[in-house]
């Protein structure tokens, strides 16, 4: 169950921060609408790494669409193995 709190709860921010764990962010609302998500640093780093990986995979997919696949011989030649 998501942990949703009004932004006014930040007046006692230690209580809010104590509820944050790696897999359990705290969502802050204002006037009933989502405003912020507070996440643990490990979770933040994990999300950033995931986004970077997905971005690199998308670049690779686009490259395949534009230029096609490399053969094993092409890869070895580009790496200077042949």
Brief descriptors of the model:
elongated; 2 domains; 3 helices; 3 strands; alpha+beta; 18% strand; three-stranded mixed sheet; 82 residues
Question: Any chance you could write out the topology, listing elements then pairs?
Answer:
Blueprint: E1 3-6, H1 13-18, E2 26-30, E3 33-38, H2 41-67, H3 72-78
Parallel strand pairs: 1-2
Antiparallel strand pairs: 2-3
Polypeptide structure, described:
By secondary structure, the protein is of the alpha+beta class. It folds into 2 domains: 3-39; 42-78. Helices cover 49% and strands 18% of the residues. The chain contains 3 helices and 3 strands, in the order E-H-E-E-H-H. It has a 3-stranded mixed sheet, with no helix packed on it. The chain is elongated, with a radius of gyration of 22 Å. The termini are far apart. The model has no long low-confidence stretch (mean pLDDT 94).
Give the spatial strand order of the biggest sheet: 1-2-3
- Summarize the biggest pleated sheet: 3 strands, mixed
β-strand number: 3
Cα end-to-end separation? 56 Å
Question: What is the number of independent domains?
Answer: 2
Short description:
By secondary structure, the protein is an alpha+beta fold. It is built from three helices and three strands, in the order βαββαα.
């Amino acid at each position: 169950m998501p942990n949703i709190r009004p932004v006014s709860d930040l007046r006692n921010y230690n209580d809010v921060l104590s509820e944050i764990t790696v897999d359990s962010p705290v969502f802050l609302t204002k006037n009933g609408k989502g405003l912020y998500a507070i996440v643990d640093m490990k979770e933040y780093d994990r999300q950033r790494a995931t986004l970077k990986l997905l971005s690199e995979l998308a670049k690779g997919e686009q490259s395949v669409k534009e230029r096609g696949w490399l053969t094993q011989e092409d890869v070895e030649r580009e790496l200077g193995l042949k």
